[in-house]
Every structure is written in structure tokens, then in C-alpha cells.
């Protein structure tokens, strides 16, 4: 049985800019594979290569057993794609768009009617099936785009930042749909996201990408366990930053933190908190905020790159 996705040395250049720099990938059948990284890291460029929308500048990749460069039509027949910038005709209804997608895939009318009804029900759009898409909310459009990508029952589903811009309720609803697709149908899902919680919730395995290169990969549990000690985060005013850092470095190695904060990997965890607070008090540090967090994917990203993922877009 061929692997859903495999790539070796994948490169994509735009002039002098190297957007993807030697990426190796293996995605197993039936897994949700998360691609986590900030904006501009190369996530969408990789998706566009794997879905045959961009040609690689170097390396190779196969999707559903087909070479993305030499067997592009076969790749397209085997995959479903929901891109973050997908264009959906606002003057058509949800039902009309699903029927059109069915025609494009050569699905007979009777089968197309059955699948359209099932998919609209699956994504919670039956009541809005005959409304023009221009009246849909952002969350409804994302769910319709997901349904459109599933019309031909693809082997591999690509979701490129599917919840960007959605409200929390719509995001949770789409998460639940992805889980159902994967668990009930065994659909292999390749998910790109910049949201830590999304990757942690959905993906069984994650690759973290930064500046076009994969810097860490593994299960969320294993990646977080490799970080080690929990992160102690202390927020103080600027006048106390130097003194706070001097005290905290006696208790663990410094970790990246945003302005106005100092973070360390606290050896001893919660049991050492009282000692740390007492040392800061003796040093005359006025604390504004203190928290102790279990290792997170943001800690994994920080350990690998020297900066935090959240807010790293700038």
C-alpha cells in the first residue's frame, strides 16, 4: 500500500527567496498530520506543491502514490483540498456548488444528489442549502468548502489553515467535523495551522516548520516531554527586569519570552515555586504576574527557534 504523502528534499524558490528548504515528509495512512508554524514559514507553499498548484524547485514528492510533478492529474483525482483563500461563487447556493463540483469530478447525477445531501447534513448546512453563499457567515463558508473538498471521497484531505478568522464556536464545530472524518472514514488529513491548540487537539503527529525547514517532528506528547521542566513565567516592570533575570537564572535555564517578561525552565517544578518567590521578594522584585505552565507546543517551538510562536508573525 502506498503512503498518502511522502517527500524528500522538497525545495521551492521564488527568485532569490527560498520559501521551502529541503523538507522531508512521511504521512501514514489514516492519520491527522499537523503542520505547525507562523505565517510565512512555508506551510502554504508546501501544500500548494503537494496539491500540484506549484512545481517544486528541487526534490520530489508523491501523494496517494503519484508523483506530484509527472502525475499531477492522478494526484488531483485522489485528493480533496480546502485552501484558506478558496474562491466560492457568492451567487450560487450551497446545493448548486456541490452539484457543480460533482460534475467536474464526473459523478453521475443521482449519486451527486445523494452525496450533496449527505455532505450538507454532515457539515450542518442542510437548512442553508438553497441560500446564496453570499449570505453565509465565515464559518458556514469554511464548512461548505470542506464539503466541496469531500464530494469525490478523496484518499487524502488537505486543510490549509481552515479555521483562520473563525469565531470560537465555528472553530470547535470544524474541529469536530475533522475528527469525525478521520475516525469514521479513516480519511488521511494534512492540516496546516498557526494555532497551537488546533495542532494539539487534532493532530496525532506534528511537524514544526520555521523559515522553510522542519525544526521538530513527533507526537505532541513526545515533543512536549522532550522540553523537560515546566516554564515559569514572571512579568515585572522594566526597572526590575535585570534583577528578576539574575534571580531566576539560579533556578533554571532561560527560555524565550515576550517583552516585560522573564521565563525559565523551572527545575523541580511546582515544588520549587515557594523558594523562587521568596528569592524574588528578598531581591526587592515587585511582581506583576507569575505563572507556571506545563510544557506546551509553544515551548517546543521556542526551544527549537529561540522565539515564541505566538506573535512570531512580525
Tell me what you see in this structure.
The protein is an alpha/beta fold. It has eleven helices and 14 strands. It folds into two domains: 5-223, P-loop containing nucleotide triphosphate hydrolases (Rossmann fold), CATH 3.40.50; 229-294, Alpha-Beta Plaits, CATH 3.30.70. The chain has a six-stranded mixed beta sheet, sandwiched between helices. A four-stranded antiparallel beta sheet has the order 2-1-4-5, with helices on one face. The longest helix is centred in the middle third of the chain and has 18 residues, at 168-185. The relative contact order is 0.14. The model has no long low-confidence stretch (mean pLDDT 90).
In summary, what is this structure?
This protein is an alpha/beta fold.
- End-to-end gap: 42 Å
Work out the helicity level: 25-40%
Structural class: alpha/beta
Tell me, what's the shape? elongated
Unreliable spans are none
Largest sheet: 6 strands, mixed
What's the total helix number?
11
The CATH topology of the largest domain: Rossmann fold
Amino acid at each position: 500500500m502506498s503512503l498518502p504523502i511522502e517527500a524528500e528534499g522538497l525545495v521551492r524558490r521564488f527568485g532569490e527567496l527560498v520559501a521551502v528548504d529541503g523538507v522531508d515528509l512521511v504521512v501514514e495512512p489514516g492519520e491527522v498530520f499537523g503542520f505547525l508554524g507562523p505565517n510565512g514559514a512555508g506551510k502554504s507553499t508546501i501544500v500548494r506543491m503537494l496539491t500540484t498548484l506549484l512545481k517544486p524547485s528541487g526534490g520530489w514528492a508523491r501523494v496517494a502514490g503519484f508523483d506530484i510533478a509527472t502525475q499531477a492529474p492522478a494526484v488531483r483525482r485522489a485528493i480533496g483540498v480546502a485552501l484558506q483563500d478558496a474562491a466560492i461563487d457568492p451567487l450560487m447556493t450551497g446545493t448548486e456548488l456541490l452539484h457543480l463540483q460533482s460534475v467536474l469530478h464526473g459523478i453521475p447525477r443521482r449519486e451527486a444528489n445523494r452525496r450533496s445531501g449527505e455532505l450538507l447534513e454532515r457539515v450542518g448546512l442542510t437548512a442553508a442549502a438553497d441560500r446564496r453563499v453570499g449570505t453565509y457567515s465565515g464559518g458556514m463558508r469554511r464548512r461548505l468548502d470542506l464539503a466541496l473538498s469531500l464530494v469525490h471521497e478523496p484518499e487524502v484531505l488537505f486543510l490549509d489553515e481552515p479555521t483562520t478568522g473563525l469565531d470560537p464556536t465555528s472553530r470547535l464545530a470544524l474541529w469536530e467535523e475533522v475528527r469525525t472524518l478521520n475516525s469514521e472514514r479513516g480519511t488521511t488529513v494534512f492540516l496546516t495551522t498557526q494555532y497551537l491548540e488546533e495542532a494539539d487537539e487534532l493532530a496525532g503527529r506534528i511537524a514544526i516548520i520555521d523559515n522553510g525547514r522542519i525544526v521538530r517532528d513527533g507526537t505532541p506528547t513526545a515533543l512536549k516531554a522532550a522540553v523537560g521542566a515546566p516554564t515559569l513565567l514572571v512579568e515585572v516592570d522594566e526597572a526590575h527586569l535585570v534583577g528578576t533575570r539574575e534571580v531566576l537564572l539560579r533556578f533554571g535555564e532561560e527560555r524565550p519570552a515576550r517583552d516585560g517578561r522573564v521565563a525559565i525552565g523551572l527545575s523541580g517544578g511546582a515544588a520549587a515555586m515557594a523558594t523562587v518567590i521568596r528569592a524574588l521578594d528578598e531581591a526587592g522584585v515587585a511582581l506583576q504576574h507569575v505563572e507556571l505552565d506545563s510544557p506546551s507546543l509553544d515551548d517546543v517551538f521556542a526551544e527549537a527557534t529561540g522565539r515564541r510562536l505566538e506573535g512570531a508573525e512580525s
